[in-house]
Amino acid sequence: MISAKLYKIVYKILANFPFQTNHVHYLPSCHSTNEVAQDLLQAGVAEGSVVITDDQFAGKGQSGNVWNSFPGQNLTFSLILHPAFLAPNEQFLITVILSLALKDTLEEILPGEVKIKWPNDIFFNNRKIAGLLIENVLRGNHYESCVAGIGLNVNQEDFPEDIMGTSLKMATNQQYNLNTILNSLMKSIAGYYQILKEESRLNLTDAYHQSLLGIGEERKFKIRKDEFNGIIQGTDEFGRLLVKKGDEILVFQHKEIQMLF
Ligand code: BTN
User: Fold this and answer.
1) Distance 249 CA to ligand 1 centre (A)
2) Conformational region of residue 48, where left means phi above 0, alpha means psi within -120 to 50, and beta covers everything else
3) Number of the ligand 1 atom closest to the C-alpha atom of 32
4) Residues 221, 259 contacting (CB under 8 angstroms)
5) Which of 18, 61, 112, 140 is most open to solvent, judged by the fewest CB atoms within 10 Å of its CB?
6) pTM for this structure?
7) If we measure between CA atoms, which residue out of 73, 82, 83, 75 comes closest to residue 33?
8) Distance of alpha carbon 117 from alpha carbon 114, whole angstroms
């Protein structure tokens, strides 16, 4: 289980974070760390604040889905960022860096390549190992804040079949220390956030495209009831998926299209 010890470890990690002030809000149990983080945002918390729990009993997934996680077995936390250096139409870059940070961290542990299933599901061996729920706060023409919720399956060994889930333990047969994984992930996020602030964004989007599940391969897609074969080309600057169908390049928003396995 994550314990008070984790609080100290996270706090130490965050001390080296490229953020101005650091706060860790550890809750033994909570409904959703994203919801708690949203409440903290209203109260005006600093960039780099983290809400983390051992037992998230009403976790939110993408598109109104739930995120289920067995207590004490996985990482469920939310990171608050104030990416004011990005324009509102650049918000997809936060998805890019967090997906890459998860990929890098997991590839240090797993015996193979980790893929990003567009837009921000993290897959290993065609099974989902982590998910991101990024909730942005825009004010007028400013990108004010974002709550980046991360669910990473670490030691859980049982998932409903329709979820196609996996965990570090299922993939390697080993038990992991949650603090160690969190430490590596936070370092990776910090590194990518710094790159986003200082370096070429093209390099980041290139790395993201190269990591996309199915990129450059002929795959079957579904739009509502229609199925077609196409090839993922990458994403546009807004993070929309570009799929080549015959001679046409089609552009899709999240949830407009499903890639079939
Ligand atoms: C998804 O793939 O559907 C997104 C999953 C995001 C789950 C995380 S767990 C921590 C944070 N708090 C939430 O309520 N959801 C996110």
Assistant:
1) 31
2) left
3) 14
4) yes
5) 140
6) 0.92
7) 75
8) 10
Per-residue pLDDT of the chain (261 residues; tens, 9 = 90+): 444 444 444 444 554 556 544 588 999 999 999 999 999 999 999 898 999 999 999 999 998 999 999 999 999 999 999 999 999 999 999 999 999 999 999 999 999 999 999 999 999 999 999 999 999 999 989 999 999 999 999 999 999 988 899 999 999 999 999 989 998 999 999 999 999 998 778 899 999 999 999 999 999 999 999 999 999 999 999 999 999 999 999 999 988 999 997
Pairing of strands 226-235, 218-223: antiparallel
Ligand 1 midpoint to CA 246 (Å): 36
- 119 phi/psi in degrees, rounded to 5: -90, -30
Assigned token pair, 214: 């199915």
DSSP letter for 45, please: P
Q: What are phi and psi of 140, to 5 degrees?
A: 55, -120
Pocket test for ligand 1, best of 150, 154, 156, 167 (most atoms within 8 A of CB): 150
Nearest to 181 by CA among 250, 113, 107, 245: 107
Q: Kindly tell me the number of DSSP H helices and DSSP E strands found in the chain.
A: 6, 14
Q: Beta-carbon neighbour count of residue 46 at 10 Å?
A: 13
Tell me the CA distances in angstroms from 202 to 24, 95, 143, 195, 214, one per residue in order: 32, 14, 20, 11, 20
Q: Which two tokens stand for residue 258?
A: 């499903």
